[in-house]
Amino acid sequence: MTSPLPAAHPPVPQRRIGVLLLNLGTPEGTDYWSMRRYLKQFLSDRRVIEVPRAIWWPLLNGVILTTRPSKSGAAYATIWNNEDNESPLKTISRAQAAAVTETLKERHGDAIVVDWAMRYGLPATGTAIQRLKDQGCDRILLFPLYPQYAAATTATANDEAFRYLMTMRWQPAVRTVPTYHDDPAYIDALAKSVERHLAGLDFTPDLLLVSFHGLPKSYLEKGDPYHCYCVKTARLLRERLGWPEERLRHTFQSRFGKEEWLQPYTDKTVEALPAQGVKKLAVVTPGFAADCVETLEEINGQVREIFLHNGGEAFSYIPCLNATPDHIALLTGIIERELGGWLPAR
Is residue 208 in a domain? Predict the structure, then answer.
């Protein structure tokens, strides 16, 4: 039995557990200044760009932030959700949080509060943490939605949360979700999405290309495990599909600058495939939890065009897991597992 509070005591909210879904980020618009603000925050992150500041800062604030916002804005404009005036990543992230909330509420009542935030742009990570704290969350699970851990994704998402926690006098207890690149439920969800998509095509792909976001090779050499996690995900997906090695290949996309990145490169690989006899191609991007400019514009736009221009006959992009039932089941399963000891036994 709890003791009554003193008469003048401020209201105490019900104790709850918070879950914060974290993704990369999005500009607030496709115009020059919206893109510039977003790119400056993104490209100023030392986890993303490890070039010494004396070299990088003049280049970023001179050439890059002068020319790149217009180019990036044009790319975003081709996939923008005009109805809600936001990027698809924001639309899908909101839907994921709503679906996870509904599922957890059915199982645990009001014990868990789910929110979502972006590392760059809005909604801001710190604001979301404060919202959870204000709702009585004295324990928070940070869930960066990157199946394959990298310092430039998972770690920087956690960094941003920790930075805000450093400003709080009364911090909640915090846990972080580890890499889930080889989680059987994740691999199964990927395989089912591939199988469903291919069953709906009017052609059979000669090859399934598994494209992951790229990373400078130097990051791997410094100890980042991302490359190994990507290769393992691709292998496990192929094994779950029951396919021979020659039917599935992995590549890395979205490289930036002149430095060598993880290879093989997606665009260069796709350019060469038709001459190698691959005329029908499907591409899946399992490193992305939600469709975004890198999948919708780069893969389903630029990469599609490269393949068809170089002699390809049929191309299909397989969407990310997004807010599908299989993905929501995967996310809620991981959440419940990582909340072990916090959640009361059912």
Answer: yes
Instruction: For 19-34, write each residue's pLDDT tens digit.
Output: 999 999 999 999 999 9
Q: Does 344 map to a domain? A: no
Q: Which pLDDT tens digit goes with each residue over 239-252?
A: 999 999 999 999 99
Query: Tokens standing for 124?
Result: 């801001």
Partners of 19 in the beta sheet? 114, 141
221 and 154 in a common domain: no
Mention every residue, 6+ apart, whose C-beta is less than 8 A from residue 239.
none
Domain that holds residue 208: 184-318
> Please, is 234 exposed, middle or buried when counting C-beta atoms within 10 Å of its C-beta (0-12, 13-18, 19+)?
buried
Q: Residues 114, 108: contact at Cβ < 8 Å?
A: no
C-alpha to C-alpha distance for 170 and 339, rounded to whole angstroms:
21
Q: Name the CA dihedral angle for 65, 68, 70, 71, rounded to a multiple of 10 degrees.
A: -170
* 158 and 188 co-located in one domain: no
Report if residue 4 sits inside a domain. Answer: no
Whether residues 171 and 189 fall in one domain: no
The closest alpha carbon to 144, from 341, 344, 338, 342, belongs to: 338
